[in-house]
Every structure is written in structure tokens, then in C-alpha cells.
Amino acid sequence: MASARTRKGLATIDRLTPPQRVVHRIGKFAEDRGIEVYAVGGYVRDLLLGKPSKDIDFVVVGDGIQFAREAAQHLGVRHVVVYPKFGTASFLYRGYKLEFVTARSERYRENSRKPEVTASSLEDDLARRDFTINALALGIRTCDCGRLLDPFGGRKDLELGIIRTPLDPVVTFHDDPLRILRAIRFATQLEFTIEAGTEEAIRTERERLRIVSQERITEELLKILAARKPSVGFWLMAKTGVLEIVLPEVAEMRGVEQIGPYHHKDVFEHTMKVLDRIAAVSDSLPLRYAALLHDVAKPRTKAFREGVGWTFHGHDEIGARMISNISRRLRLPNEMSRFAEKLTRLHLRPIALVEEGVTDSAIRRLIVQAGEDLESLLTLCRADITSRNPKRVRQHLANFERLVQRIREVEEKDRMRAFQSPVRGDVIMQVCNIPPGPTVGKLKKMIEEAILDGKIPNEYDAAFQYLLQIKDEVLREAQRQPNGTGREGN
After folding, report:
1. Contact between 176 and 60 (Cβ < 8 Å)
2. What are the pLDDT digits (tens) for 443-469?
3. Cα-based distances in Å from 116 to 5, 59, 65, 179, 453
């Protein structure tokens, strides 16, 4: 087994980082008990990359669960989570999740990614891991402190920026197909390249992803979406055919059709540009999700009109409904879905204002419709301005920024964002001497419309006076209706 010394592993205790102090304490406890324990996996990988890590995994050559319980007691930790079937246990200590596993080998059944495990050697344990960059072990006892065990060349792959499996990648992905998405996720997060044989195995075994639970697939998709440049992962999924399985609606965006001189831009390519632009300015996962799906209905609404070219009428509204269905399938929170639906439904409005002419009343309506999500909507719309013609992009951006300035001016003047009628329903009922019913709602709506159209300012006194002006006519009209003053029917 190849080994090497890592300078970080030999640092003196007073110079250790907080996670290294935790590892040092576990190593000292293991040495006192005469038990062989190694730090492994993601912690060692991140240590070599100089990245922080909140999870620390240990392999115990012996009983991992018993060692975890004894270590927890030694550290003053009361609660230990135990998974007897897999020989693992974990607990929280000083903000770090520590997981202990008995050194093991694994055997998989055809239609399950849950392995049958048996106790084994450290070498076998490293061989069962997903990628060479995670098949690294670091000695943590005084006798082997800082000794890096690297049987599959993981350190070299870290230096070269390569994602590769320790064993046959076809077998690796067939046994546990979630590793297909993990390969793509690591390539995206670390900005590494997937080795050719490993990538081909992803393509070969991608259908096995259908046995993976939706929750685990969504977890990996969200991690890809949270990366510095999420498009890397989505291009890899598209290239290997994985996207058709995990997000078929996004896979449909690929391709360009041409009739005569008319062609439309590749919706997938455009979406990837928008997504990366959003990622460059915002860490918001809901906003990135909205960027990914804001044009999801374009393939299904695409139509060709002679003399006009390609159109996508209704893709905003249809897209919002599609997002609702996609989010349910992905088991995403309702709040995240509603946010993406709202931005998709509204994402054409700001650009339409620029093209049709900007009026204060139109701006007020946009402010009210977007509400507290106005800034997110504007961020998405700004990122959505793409073209291969730099002059056109500059012109569109300049027009858009003028619109944003007008929105700021109207907002400051009207304080519109959390807008509703200044005159409440109970006041309307008292002034008009009517019970709850549709007439109250109609009067509130008329006051709101008058404010949005700029007929009256967004102030209580002006709204109250306007109510006095309109109430008699509205009440007379209500009296002519079958239900009299607007009382709800039985």
C-alpha cells in the first residue's frame, strides 16, 4: 500500500486547526486503547485540497460501534446514533459530525443499492469507496500520525483534477448507481474532469439510477445547483444521458430547429448561461432553481409562424404549472416551488415593459405582483438577457437598467411593494352599512386599481375619500343583483 507523509498531519498541537484538534483527540484516545483508527474519505480529501470540512469519517480496524461509544463517553458526548446493520455510529462534537465505521467489504444485490457488509481490512475498506480521491486514509495515532495511505493514486488524481473509481467503474456504478450523480457532483464542485473510462461507464449504467430513491437524487441535484458554476454538472448530465432520467423536462431543451432563414437559440445553452450568471451573483438555491426552469415550457410551446419565425407563446404560464409538477416529483419544499413558479410566471413582464413603453401604472402592477420577490425577479431578468451579438446585449441591458431606475423611483414615491388597499374591509362595511360579501371585495379592488393607475395616492385619506365617491353607484348596482347588497348566497 502506497504511503506518504503529509506536513499537515505532523503539525504541532498548538498549530492545529479546530477539525485537526478533534482528529488529534480521537487519535490520542485510539492510541491509549491500542486500537487502529484512521481518518478517511472526504476529510482527508479536503485536508489535502486546503478546504474546510464539517464531517469527519473514521475507519476502525475492529468494532467501530463500540469504539464510537467509548470515544463519545471519553469526550463527554451522551447521544450516539448507531446503525448496527452497517457497522457505523456517529455523534456530534464541537460542531463536527464524527462518523465511525468498522473496516468492511461490501456485496450488492441486483435491484438494491443497499449493500451486505462484512468486517474486513483497511485495504478492502478503501477499495469499496466511490472514487480514488475519497479512497485515502490518514494515520492519526502518534505511531503513524501524518502517514497517508493511498493505494489507488488518489493524491495524484487530486493534483491532476481527475474523478476516477478505484475499481472497475462499470461494477462501481452498477452496484451503487447513486455514485453516477456523485461523480458528476464532485466534478462540478471541485471543477475536475471525469476520466474517460469512468465517464463511459456512467453512460453505460445510467438506467440503474431508476432504482435510487428520489430523495437521494434530489440531494445530489441540489448540491450541483449550489456549485460555483452549476452548468458544468448539467452539461455532464446532458452529455452522458443522465439528464433524460433525472430531469427529462430540462433535457428536452436541447437542440435548435431551423426553417428557411429562421432558427431559435438552443434553449438549454441559453439556460446554462442564465444559471451561471445567477450563480455568479447569488448563492440563493431557490433563485438558481428558478433560473434552471424559467424557460422549461419553451420546447412544449414552440411554434413556427410564417414571416415571423419561432414563437413560444404562453411558456411563462405553462412553465409555472410544469414547475409545480417537477417540484412535487423532486420532493422539494412547497415554498421553493412557489418561488420558482412565481418568477417564471413573471419573468417576461419587465422586458415587455421595456418594449411596450414604461408607464407608472404598469410599474406599480409589476411591483405589487412581484411583492417581496421583486429583487430576485429583476436579478433573473437581467441574467436572462443573452445574445451572440454583443451590441444587442449592451442595448438591452441599458434599456433594462433604465427600467430598474424607474421602478426605484416609483417604489420610493409610492411604497408599493407590500401593497393592499389602505382602507380595510371592516371600514368599508361600516361606512356602507353592508355585511361581508363580494361587494366589499369589489370596493377594495376598485380602490387598489385607482392607486395602481395613479388616480389617487397610496394614502388612507385619499383612499377613504375615493370610497365615498364610488360607494353609492356600487351599492346601487349590487341592489340590482339577485343577492341584494352582496350577501353570499346559501
Report:
1. no
2. 988 888 888 777 888 888 888 998 999
3. 34, 18, 17, 17, 68
Q: For residues 25 and 14, what is the distance between their CA atoms, to the nearest angstrom?
A: 13
Calpha distance 308→237 (Å, rounded)? 34
Compute the distance between CA of residue 432 and CA of residue 439 in angstroms, rounded to an integer.
10
- Of 23, 72, 29, 30, the closest CA to residue 46 belongs to 23
CATH number of 15-160: 3.30.460.10
Question: Matching CATH topology for 15-160 and 164-246?
Answer: no
Which residues make beta-bridge pairs with 258?
A: 263
Single-letter code of the amino acid located at 431? V
> Which residue type, as a one-letter code, is found at position 267?
V
Question: Strand, coil or helix: what is 164?
Answer: coil
- Report residue 104 CA to chain centroid gap: 33
How many beta carbons lie within 10 A of that of residue 300, not counting itself?
14
The pairing of beta strand 193-194 with beta strand 162-163: parallel
Rounded to 10 deg, the angle between the 334-346 and 285-293 helix axes is 50
Are the C-beta atoms of 257 and 310 separated by less than 8 Å?
Answer: yes
* CATH 2.60.120.40 corresponds to the domain 164-246: no
Task: Look up the pTM and report it.
Answer: 0.80
Domains of the chain, by residue range, sit at: 15-160, 164-246, 270-417, 425-480
Burial class (CB in 10 A: 0-12, 13-18, 19+), 306: exposed
The DSSP secondary structure of 282-321, one letter per residue, reads ---HHHHHHHHHTTTTHHHH-EEETTTEEE-TTHHHHHHH
**Residue 280 confidence (pLDDT) above 50:** yes
